[in-house]
Amino acid sequence: MPRRKRATSGSRRAAERAQPDGWRRALITGASAGIGAAFARRLAARGCDLVLVARRDSALERLGAELTAAHGIEVEAIAADLTDADRVRAVERRLEESERPIDLLVNNAGSETEHAPFAIRDRELLAAEVYLNAAALMRLTHAAVRSMVPRGVGAVLSVSAGAAFYPVPGSAAYGASKAFVNSLTEALSEELRGTGVRVAAICPGFTRTEAQARLGLRSEIVPAAFWKEPDEVADAALRGLARGAVISNVGLLDALVAFLGRHLPRRLWLRSVARTQQRLKSA
Q: Can 166 be counted among the known catalytic residues?
């Protein structure tokens, strides 16, 4: 069962302040570090109670204690590896809980499980990657939306990627799974028109997180201008959601890359993308 930290009565009053978007409680996946932790800190500063989901129980406990102490909010922690269908169902059940409803779902969990050409990848890791990035996100989104629509309020914000706008040789499954996120988001945005429930996605490019070291990527080959910090991504995502953007980017450079991915003929840039992906992993 998720563990819950209770705020004091004074801090409960702070947590119950009227939110600009009507959010009292947000559930964030992949919350223990990087972009997820940045979302947690931003929402906690607004007085929003949190449900934090990630694999690392100890990291969730530390972050929850920090945010409760700093902002007087209530924090629940759910340790869950979202490549495990049983743990995904546990998070679904929390999203569907009616007595302590979730007003904002942040689908942040998602990554490559390894960085290598498709033909030589481990098939189980490949399947886990696609499940995490696409199927688990879809299941959690469905649980959230189905609970929010009858209440007439709520939002789902998914962290997609700049790679969603074009095929990515060298990260083929990752790019395809993020394209799924964008397509799902755009379709649901239209389906949910007039319900009071909004869906949106943010598509960051290169972002400094633990992923680069875990995947053994050569971050130094990427020009400094392309890098973003997790806080920048979280801020841009929340701004985009507030202004009603369905798909948004982090800054003008990311927006330009997305525009080119949408509109330039693929023959002009596909091999260049493939070469860059190969260099990222070269010894």
A: no
